[in-house]
Amino acid sequence: MNKTIYAITSGQGPDVLLLHGLFGQGSNLRGIARALARQFRVHCLDLPDHGRSTWLEEASLTHYAREIDLWMGESGLDSAHVVGHSLGGKVAMQLALSHAARVNCLVVADIAPVAYAGQHFEVFDALQKVVAANCQSRQSADEVLADVIEDPAVRGYLLMGFERGEGADPWRFNVQGLRSGYVRLCAAPDFDRVFTGDTLFLRGADSDYVGAEHEKTIAQWFPASHLVSLTDAGHWLHMDQPQAFCDQVRHHLLSWVGA
After folding, report:
1. Which residue in 63, 62, 80, 61 sits closest to 72, CA to CA?
2. N or C: which end of the chain has fewer CB within 10 A?
């Protein structure tokens, strides 16, 4: 079996892949997995350089999509529905564009197929400070992060990837590799061809990640797509409006399978 991608699988039915965002891990999406597991077999994947998946020599959308393609083949999955949030949404789009036969229908959460200006440089600095301080607990790591990151919700999200062990680096994600590949991860997907499969773009109404200026590009490369905004939701729309998010995803997937 493929040793690059770590996955947790639950439920029975058509296969669904869940792809998390930057600095996350598959377990971040377990709420969505529970909501879908009655009707689908759900695979929560750790992206490369995250969680328990292997760290790659080069972080990029194409490399991440290639590793998921390989994992699917070695796991006996000819194709699956794919749901991705933020960076996971970009990887999902790249998978659909480069390996279209692998993707039945697609859900992209609060990200567009465009290049974004980097906005995580302070986060990378804060993560490195935790390493330098040799923090032995989440509390001490949180105190170091708080010097740079004011939002406790952001710190809490990052600390889900904190694991003090015998090694020198307490983070479950590849801080150095992600930083060196950050420009590539912020770039637009590589457009080899359009993806003609059914695609749902979900955006948070209070988020600026997917704006009106992105709609033309979305329609160009995903011509069978439609866009839905969730009210009272920001970039972490699946956390701000979990029921509405899961309802939209479930409806989209079931409409594809004809249920």
Report:
1. 80
2. N
Q: How many domains does the chain have?
A: 2
Q: Which residue range is the domain that position 136 belongs to?
A: 121-180
Residue at which a domain ends, from 141, 156, 180: 180
Q: Are 110 and 90 in contact (CB under 8 A)?
A: no
Give the bridge partners for 85, in sequence order: 109
Q: If you average pLDDT over residues 84-104, what whole number do you get?
A: 97
Task: Tell me what pLDDT residue 138 has.
Answer: 92
Whether 86 shows a pLDDT value over 50: the answer reads: yes
Whether residue 252 is found in the same domain as residue 206: yes
22-60 pLDDT, tens per residue? Answer: 999 999 999 999 999 999 999 999 999 999 999 999 999
Q: What is the mean pLDDT of residues 189-216?
A: 95
CATH, residue 45: 3.40.50.1820
Asked if 14 and 76 sit in the same domain, the reply is yes
What number of residues does the chain have? Answer: 259
